[in-house]
Specification:
heterodimer; A: about 280 residues; alpha/beta; Elongation Factor Tu (Ef-tu), domain 3; Rossmann fold; 7-stranded mixed beta sheet; 9 helices; 17 strands; about 30% helix; about 30% strand; B: about 450 residues; Fumarate Reductase Iron-sulfur Protein, Chain B, domain 2; FAD/NAD(P)-binding domain; 3 domains; 5-stranded parallel beta sheet; 16 strands; about 15% strand; binds flavin-adenine dinucleotide; binds FE2/S2 (inorganic) cluster
Chain lengths: ~280, ~450
């Protein structure tokens, strides 16, 4: 059992939790993830390590299905059954020069750890964080304190630049020499944004989020196609060369269990509603 | 001894074979000739004193029989169920020349099941030596080594990356062959000897190689969990599984009980399984229990199938169709699997493995309709940790090279089980782990 030491809703439907997990916290590096299982009947789900302090790791997630809804309902002081990690290869941190970190939606959660590591390696770090609307935007202050420059975008113009992160990246790419770029967000956003840096061959990383089971290379559920090779995202990734990834295939595989995910979530809502009525 | 009828058992995951009654066990034990020079013991990789425990069954003293088995094997209820006795102890039994060999596996199982119900105490832990040993992986190899090392008084920590111990016993072999409460019970007995188990600890990630090497000795029992894929066109379609994934979803995550358990698995109505080993049979029979019509495709002949004869027979009884001398070449479908194209195979001269090599016959392609395709064509050593141990000597298939004592090329690092041999058997992993544990004890004494 692992204790959740803090839990907050930091934007609409986006939650931050801190988990006491020394084995993960003392070894975590930027770009890695954990696998969490809430309870005995729970699924194993992958979530990025967003920050580390002492023996605790921070996870930021959006409540989209059964497991993330259940996780959102856990109060500080309560336990979850399992947290395994850190998993996956760390981000390739080195001295590149000027780096741009692009985050979309809950994908922004991955950026502070990477930004900090890049700063330590003497890079100039520009952050671009975007959300559908101002009330979904996360980690603005934290990113501002780490990055040399920070741009904010919203799809509806409710905060910062009215448009997509890709528009800002395009502008930067046209006007400055960029040495490395990270794009982390919804798959479709990563697919579209990665196109910006393809022509100038700027080294660009994306963090893939296929469906996983063990997270240790034993099942192949997470297999992706990168440069016509099959890769297991949990051990070969999750970060890959953005210009070599087959995003369409990734999106197709992410939809493998849509119907069952719906059933799970409906049952969860029914259950939580009835137990609320009973109280 | 009873095997549940096929039409009943395909509807659940309860055990197929229900074992001996007391009368049957005693009658079977009385058949044993109590040879002066018993050959059966040589056939047992952990060297159980077989005639001794059988004699005690014949006398009706089952607890004493359990004590004998326990001296050599801490996982008897598991081994009694999954060991290939027909190629080990039972193959050597003299009675096999004239009639049928003594059913040693069934007797071992009977004794172990009896002992579990009676709660026979595990052996004591040895006097503390103050030496610390790290065991990586909690499959049969890791558990057996931990039991031996704890008995010798060493301070043992097992690191396991999954949330539950047992390795393949837990995530691979389905409950209808090996009920999970039995696995839990036998593993907990080993742990109760003061062995520390840390789940969710991925060695190489949660513990670095340097931290691992700070122990007085290390035993690697990380198994052969990397699933091989066939590299066929269409392999990324939704509905294509490795047998490992399919079985893990069911055995470890209980997807058969979705939505009571959260993890889903696609319940195929028409399932094709490629391969013919134990893993393929388990995947096929599990898919059958989820309601699918299952076809198993194998490139050689039925007599070449590597699975145990009993598993093949059970699969057939359960209505699984065998298509032999055929090999999948392409998976069709746009986003989900709709069929598996196969070619017919011709059996030619024997190859190096001694089995005839199968060669595709041109223009013989045919399609089997399917919504699920499961590949069970073998596994390799789990590379996660090994890739970080760059200095350890490894064989062509990636397996760790270890001598008869389990010694690897690195000082104080031993290895046992599938990580050294590639996919083999539970009992071979246990036998190798015992030898390695003994070698570790000798090393720690000096
Ligand atoms: C390496 C990695 C890191 C991740 N990091 C984060 C993170 O930091 N924060 C976060 O909010 N999410 C992250 N995800 C996605 C997260 O794992 C899924 O949101 C989660 O599994 C959903 O579980 P659920 O039971 O709540 O939803 P489900 O009911 O399983 O699914 C609900 C919806 O979520 C989507 N979904 C399901 N599984 C996945 C998946 N594995 N990846 C992406 N989408 C999925 C589907 O569109 C589905 O309709 C990460 C995924 C990976 C592989
Ligand atoms: C479906 C199936 C059916 C089988 N049927 C039979 C049968 O009927 N009879 C028989 O005798 N054999 C059978 N086998 C083979 C048998 O299960 C194996 O030979 C045996 O389990 C090998 O034991 P092991 O301890 O070496 O490895 P495993 O059982 O594979 O255990 C290895 C453990 O190490 C863990 N691990 C790996 N890497 C790390 C790491 N870096 N850090 C921490 N932990 C790690 C894994 O999670 C796993 O729990 C079957 C195998 C399968 C897959
Ligand atoms: S999640 Fe199982 S291999 Fe990657």
């Amino acid at each position: 059992m692992y204790t959740i030491t803090a839990s907050n809703e930091i934007a609409e439907n986006i939650f931050e939790i801190w988990v006491e997990a020394p084995h993960v916290a003392t070894h975590a590096q930027a770009g890695q993830f954990v696998i969490i299982r809430v309870d005995e009947t729970g699924e194993r789900i992958p979530l990025t390590i967003s920050a580390v302090t002492g023996d605790r790791v921070r996870i930021i997630f959006m409540a989209v299905g059964k497991t993330t809804h259940a996780l959102a309902g856990i109060q500080a002081g309560e336990d979850i059954a399992d947290i395994a990690g850190p998993l996956g290869k760390p981000s390739e941190i080195e001295k590149y020069g000027t780096c741009v970190l692009v985050g979309g939606g809950v994908g922004i959660a991955s950026l502070p750890f990477i930004a900090q590591s890049l700063k330590k390696a003497d890079n100039r770090v520009i952050g671009i964080i975007g959300a559908r609307s101002a009330n979904f935007l996360i980690l603005e202050d934290e990113m501002r304190s780490i990055c040399d420059e920070l741009c904010i975008t919203t799809d509806d113009g409710s905060k910062g630049f009215h448009g997509f992160a890709a528009d800002i990246l395009k502008e930067l790419n046209n006007t400055r020499k960029l040495d490395a770029v990270w794009i982390i967000g919804p798959t479709i956003m990563m697919k579209v944004t990665a196109e910006v840096t393809r022509e100038k061959k700027v080294q660009t990383f994306v963090s893939l989020n296929p469906i996983m089971v063990d997270g240790t290379g034993m099942c192949g559920s997470c297999r992706c196609r990168v440069g016509n090779e099959t890769k297991f995202a949990c051990v070969d990734g999750p970060e890959f060369d953005a210009h070599a990834v087959d995003f369409n295939l990734l999106m197709q595989r992410q939809r493998m269990y849509t119907e069952m995910e719906r059933i799970s979530l409906e049952r969860f809502h029914e259950y939580t509603c009835t137990s609320r009525e009973e109280q | 001894m009873a095997v549940r009828p096929a039409d009943e058992r395909v509807r659940d995951f309860s055990e197929v074979d229900t074992g001996f009654s007391r009368e049957e066990a005693i009658a079977e034990a009385e058949r044993c000739l109590q040879c002066k020079k018993p050959l059966c013991i040589d056939g047992c990789p952990v060297g159980i004193d077989i005639p001794a425990f059988i004699a005690l069954i014949a006398e009706g003293d089952i607890c004493a029989a359990a004590g004998i088995i326990q001296q050599s094997n801490m996982l008897p209820a598991i081994c009694g169920r999954v060991c290939p006795q027909e190629t080990q102890c039972e193959e050597r039994c003299i009675l096999g020349n004239k009639e049928s060999p003594v059913r040693i596996g069934q007797l071992e199982r009977y004794v172990a099941d009896f002992a579990r119900k009676e709660g026979v105490l595990p052996p004591e832990r040895g006097k503390n030596t103050g030496k610390q040993v790290a065991v990586v992986g909690s499959g049969p190899a890791g558990i057996t080594a931990a039991a031996e090392l704890a008995a010798a008084g060493h301070d043992v920590t097992i690191f396991e990356s999954l949330h539950k111990p047992g390795g393949v016993l837990t995530y691979g072999i389905p409950a209808f062959r090996l009920p999970k409460d039995i696995v839990d019970y036998e593993i907990n007995r080993v742990l109760s000897r003061g062995v520390r188990l840390l789940c969710n600890h991925v060695v190489g990630r949660s513990i670095t190689v340097q931290e691992l090497l700070a122990y007085d000795a290390v035993l690697l029992g990380t198994g052969a969990g990397l699933p091989y894929f066939m590299n066929l066109p269409g392999e990324h379609l939704n509905g294509v599984y490795s047998a490992n994934e399919f079985l893990t979803r069911i055995n470890l995550m209980h997807a058969d009980r979705f939505p009571l358990y959260d993890t889903p698995v696609i319940r195929g109505s028409r399932v094709v399984v490629a391969g013919a080993g134990n893993v393929a049979m388990d995947a096929a029979r599990a898919a059958r229990r989820l309601g699918g019509r299952v076809t198993l495709v194998y490139r050689r002949r039925e007599k070449d199938m590597p699975a145990r004869a009993a598993e093949i027979a059970h699969a057939r009884e359960e209505g699984i169709t065998f298509v032999t001398c055929a090999n999948p070449v392409e998976i069709s479908g746009e986003t989900v699997v709709t069929g598996v194209s196969c070619v017919k195979m011709n059996m030619c001269e024997a190859d190096e493995s001694g089995r005839p090599s199968a060669v595709p016959i041109p223009d013989t392609q045919f399609v089997i309709d399917a919504d699920i395709f499961i590949q069970a064509i073998g596994q390799g050593p789990n590379p996660l940790l090994l890739s970080l141990f760059d200095s350890i000597s490894r064989g062509k298939a990636g397996n760790v090279i270890a001598d008869a004592d389990g010694k690897t090329s690195l000082p104080r690092v031993f290895a046992a089980g599938d990580v050294t041999t590639g996919s083999a058997t539970v009992i071979e992993a246990m036998g190798a782990a015992k030898k390695a544990a003994k070698a570790i004890c000798r090393m720690l004494q000096d």
